[in-house]
Amino acid sequence: MANVSIRIAGANGDGVESTGALLGKIAALSGMEVFGNRGYQSVIRGGHVWYQIRIGDEKLYSAGDSIDVLVALNQDSIVNQKSHLSDKAIVIYDSAKCNVTELEGRSYKLVGIPFLEIVLAAGGDSIMRNMVSIGAVLKVVGIDISLFDAVINKMFLRKGIDVVNKNIKVATDGYSYKGVENVYSIKGDGKPRYLLDGNTAVSLGAYAAGCKYYAAYPMTPASGILQWFAAHADRGVLYKQTEDEIAAINSAIGASSAGVRAMCGSSGGGFALMVEALGLAGMLETPLVVVESQRTGPSTGLPSKTEQGDLLFVMHASQGEFPRIVVAPRSMEECFSLTADAFNLADRYQCPVIILVDAFISERVESVVNFDVDSIRIDRGKMADASATSGRFKRYELTNDGISPRSVPGMKGFSFVAPSYEHNEYGELVSDVLSGLDAHVEMRKKMQEKRMRKMDTMLKQEKVFAPNIENENAKHFLVAFGSTTSVAREAMAALNRKGLDFGLISFSYILPLDSDRTKRMLSGKHLIDVECNYTAQLAKVIRMEMGVEIKDTILRYDGENITCGEIVDKAAKIAGSQ
Amino acid sequence: MVENYSSGIRPDFCPGCGNFGIFAALTKAFTDLKLDKDNTMVVAGIGCSSTMVQAFSCYGIHSLHGRLLPVAMGAKLANNDLTVLGIGGDGDGYGIGSAHLIHVARRNIDMTYVISDNQTYGLTTGQTSPTGLIGYKTKSTPFGDIENPLNPIALAISAGATYVARGFSGDPAHLAELIKRGISHKGFALIDVYSPCVTFNYLNTYDWFKNGVYKLEGTGYDPKDKHAALVKALEPEESDYKRLPIGVFYEEERPTYESMDITLKKGPLIKQPMPTKEQIASFLNENR
Predict the structure, then answer these.
(1) Assign residue B8 a region: left if phi > 0, alpha if psi is -120 to 50, beta otherwise?
(2) Does B9 touch chain A (CB under 8 A)?
(3) Model confidence over A8-55: pLDDT tens digits?
(4) Where are the domains of chain B?
(5) Fewest CB within 10 angstroms: A127, A315, A503, A527, which?
(6) pTM for the whole structure
(7) Fold assignment, B19-285
């Protein structure tokens, strides 16, 4: 397996992200696997930002722990990134801006290129200087420059052939600049891949499921979803920017009550504001999908950094008890498919479904060979039978499976009032003047049991509510959920290459869990919990629900995503002491 | 056939409550307009007045305290063929839900919002509200309210509501006309209703209101003039609440949010088809 990690570093406004994205796109289109991750701060101009793109000939599960090729656009990039360089790193730097004396005399290969000078000599604009660096990187990693030409043609043709030709010229100059030599040989399989981030994949999953309404208030790292919906508003998805997250979720509940598939989303801070209405959806039994993209908390925390610190929060948020589902996609494919599935689950069980992602998966990019569009089915769940009206409609009928047929405005003869108060089968209040009288005490009990019965029903009907196991006869198991899973998978392979015997148990459906199945999977194994939070929240859930205690943990909570190297080091040490 | 808008549940207001007048006016307005109850959504908040949603046979949502407007907006955006109404109290709309009022007004969502304004949190047994007058003594203000009351009419006009009226629950026939005009109006209509709380509010009683209330209709007042409307909105406080104009303060024609939203150009969301495999593939291909 051949792969290379390239990090482009500079200031905000230097085009770092677009350069990384373009590089990723060229590789994905030529049939290579790509995994990219960015680092940035909560500032608009300046600061130090980087984008790491890893390119390989097999599926990648992280952007790599260290830098094989650094593109330094300014002096900060030398200073801040030198500690991440691998031993044989190639440093391509802007010779007009960087002094690399501190890197000399080491095992690095230093290649200075006067980016701006090359651009100006070609009659180009200063904005094109990153194209010179892309040309140089392509040479180093062994991607033919003709692939650049093809992508640029497609991207910039609307700006005119002159722009295209100048971009190609300066990239070719970078590609053939003296001192730039080919080091890596990574061959694509010729099958073009999609390249997208988690926010885009979630948005596409929602679109594919027929979501028509997305409401949000801007908040990093979930804003990519609202930007996707806003950009596609002329093609059948309504994005409503609201005055706050309270309005976002309440409007989504209104939209869902009126019959369309609706979603809202935010990060943890915005979700905190949504909590009261989450319970409203639970009580009204309104289908609702909520995306929560975690960042480093508490409070405003580190806005552009990742964490998995909201797991217990989303599982328990709201006063009272009601059925809910929590899913945590582990890959781009799952960001798409689990989001699509979330809408079916929400409709089938008439409850909120929370998609728990984080900065690490929302904003990283991965190449994807194909999305499973064919298996998408739209199931709106139990609707009232319009042909069988008999008497007053019982919206909250006490059924054996807990699911009551629902109606939406426009269905004649099926009107009802959905109340946030406790209610009887018709939706009439049992809270006010009659509260505490025997018949109403009994109704409250029955209604709460009816709602909660939906949890039993979903566990009976759905096969998805259990973790996945890889390498199931292994001696030690890493345990992870959501975004962290992919890195843990890469670590498992690395540990096994070291001669250790590791497997992986990972969760994408977290609430509810089939506790028998899950317990069987977890019991009698040596488990090492891997999470990005301080209190090992998944391990707590496992102990609480399954009675299985996980003693060993590898936790990270500094805002950075967990790396393969640190899992390998710590897990090897834990396994050695067993 | 006359549609029956009653669910059979009678509102459990205190005897003499102003909300009975609002309920009667709403029922009359629905009946006169022959509203299609299967395509009408009434959204209420939480509070004494909000409980009247239970008494209607239309589709309804008895939502959270202060959140009826975003719920109603979502329903309207999902299906803009629906007639959407909001019913709530002054604590609900001007207190906890005030941010939503400002923003739904400026968006000009086509809906009608009837606020029972009794200066009182009644369901929590009598505390002052954002419209409580200075000096108003309640359980939460035993030494008298010291906060300046909010002016809902001036607020709604300046926020961008395109129909702003005030009624009096002691005159349900007049109020019914205001509600009918509000429902027929294309855009966000706010109708603040002076509504005595006979149990907790001994300051703003029926007599207190009756002494000040007069109708704008027939006074030569022009509700199309925004400047005049803002001046008129100040009359109660400037007259030390001796003069309480009721009627339409302001009305303008401005495109609704739904008429301008690019997604809704193709019709109500609810009627737009689910995506085809080809459409999904073309959206995916944007990432290749």
Answers:
(1) left
(2) yes
(3) 999 988 889 889 999 999 999 989 999 999 888 777 777 899 999 999
(4) 19-285
(5) A127
(6) 0.97
(7) Rossmann fold (3.40.50)
